[in-house]
Amino acid sequence: MVGHARDGREAVKLAISLEPDVVLMDLDMPLVDGIEATKAIRRSLPARVAILTASPLPEDALRARAAGAEAYLTKGCSAPEVVEAVVELAVSGDPRRKEVTRGEREVREAFAGLPHDLLQFRARLAH
Q1: Would the pTM of this model clear 0.85, i.e. be above it?
Q2: How confident is the model over 87-118, as pLDDT tens digits?
Q3: Alpha-carbon Rg for the chain in angstroms
Q4: 68: left (phi over 0), alpha (psi -120 to 50) or beta
Q5: Residues 9-52: pLDDT tens digits?
Q6: Cα(46)–Cα(26) distance, integer angstroms
Q7: What is the spatial distance between Cα 84 and Cα 111, in angstroms, rounded to a whole number?
Q8: What are the structural domains, with CATH classification, of the chain?
Q9: Dihedral of the alpha carbons of 32, 73, 126, 113, in degrees to the nearest 10
Q10: Which residue spans within the chain are E strands per DSSP?
């Protein structure tokens, strides 16, 4: 499932509502930034968080990691790199979610069409 939020507050509400395995979000969002949104999501859900941001600053990566993000990608990375990070978080699993029965191959196949979708999504973010 995929959800789209306009700001950090909406991202937290949407994540709690959808209960995704992986959340991909920016650091720089209105109302609630990505650091605070990551903390709120991690307090409420076992979802894994990946940050996709324009900031290449090591201190931002450290703050994201301290907040609970498990991946940190800069917006210059390729769509396949984003997909690989999301898939890696999805298949590496959380012991609290052992009921997931899909194997790694099935998850990778499910994400196969995403590079094109992510390129379109990235283009929308740029505008």
Answers
A1: no
A2: 888 887 654 443 333 444 555 555 555 555 55
A3: 14
A4: left
A5: 999 999 999 999 999 999 999 999 999 999 999 999 999 999 99
A6: 19
A7: 9
A8: 8-126 (3.40.50.2300)
A9: -110
A10: 22-25, 48-53, 69-74
Q: Report the distance separating Cα 63 and Cα 57, nearest Å.
A: 10
Distance CA 75, CA 53 (A): 5
Q: Are strands 48-53 and 69-74 parallel, antiparallel or unpaired?
A: parallel
Q: How far apart are CA 109 and CA 61, in angstroms?
A: 29
Secondary structure class of 99 (helix, strand, coil): coil
Determine the Cα–Cα distance for residues 26 and 61; give it in Å rounded to an integer: 12
- DSSP letter assigned to residue 54: S
Report the alpha-carbon distance of residue 70 to residue 87 in Å, rounded. 12
Residue 56, number of CB atoms within 10 A of its CB: 11
Place of tokens 């979000």: 25
CA end-to-end distance (rounded Å), the chain: 24
